Amino acid sequence: MKSDKLKFLIFCLVVLVLPLPLAKGYLTNVLIFVGINSMLALGLNLLLGYAGQISLGQAAFFGLGAYGSGVLTTKYALDPWLSMVLVALVVAGFAFAIGFPVLRLKGHYLAMATLGVGVIAHIAFNETIDLTGGPSGLSGIPNLSIAGFSFDSDLKNYYLVWSFALVVILLCLNLVNSRYGRGLRAIHDSEVAARVMGVNARLMKVQIFTLSAFISAIAGSLYCHVMTFISPTSFGFNISVELLTMVVIGGLGSVYGSILGALLLTLLPELLRTFQDYDIVVYGLLLVCMTIYLPGGMVRGIPALVRRLVPARSGNA
Predict the structure, then answer these.
(1) 150 within domain boundaries
(2) Are 59 and 121 spatial neighbours (Cβ–Cβ below 8 Å)?
(3) What is the pLDDT of residues 237-287, one digit of tens each?
(4) Which residue from 16, 27, 239, 278 puts its CA 20 to 30 A from 100's CA?
(5) How many domains would you assign to the chain?
(6) Residue 17 burial (CB < 10 Å; 0-12/13-18/19+)?
(7) Residue partners of 34: CB distance under 8 A and separation at least 6
(8) What domain range includes position 153?
(9) Is residue 303 one of the residues assigned to a domain?
(10) Are 30 and 239 in contact (CB under 8 A)?
């Protein structure tokens, strides 16, 4: 436990000082998206990496959080902070309601059901033009502010987003190391065995699905107030695939693996701008390669790979 606390404190220190030596603007902006994607990846990893329940609909909850806050603040002049809380609670309630029937399914049936939720949400974002602006998007979303202090620059938004991200990281670390987290891992290994041991598997799956949606909605609200403009293209199926790739590359069942995956997959599109139309192919290839060669993700796979190579070299010597 002491090592976990030390790791977290070191990570907080890195987050605190990281933007200071960077030039203001582009790199700081990229780090903002790393923070938002880290929250999304952590939410998905709780569901997939710890509870073993696949979801291809995380973009729906991300989009509902963004559009909910955007619509309430622009159309109804509601306070942004209040909008964020209300929308997150509503999205969590929605996830809880659909979680009971959806999470009865398993494997590819569950994947298809969650994919359907994402597709329906994306269609709604496009078609409800009076509220969302349709394909043209929603503009004029205000920045968040506290007592007259507005988060209207990249550096301010960096610390805002990462403050939320650090809270989510701390929540996840405490959750997965608790009795509840052990119950989730038991469900992941064998749901039947977990039920025999007295774990209420059905309720726990719905609860973690709800928490995952809540975190995604908060990330969506932050996204809309940082960008001040949103459009349906930011919440399509490709976003769900990107999030899945982040979790698999970083490491299923690893909190810091989610952050590493988010960092790599946020930077990767910047390196693939010339192949923009084929980015989904690249993500697919990454998923295949990681599953074959580093099934534990980078957090576990790279140290294991090094351990295999070092004895081999020592033997040759």
Answers:
(1) yes
(2) yes
(3) 889 988 998 998 898 889 999 999 999 888 877 766 666 667 677 777 877
(4) 239
(5) 1
(6) exposed
(7) 259, 262, 263, 266, 267
(8) 2-237
(9) no
(10) no
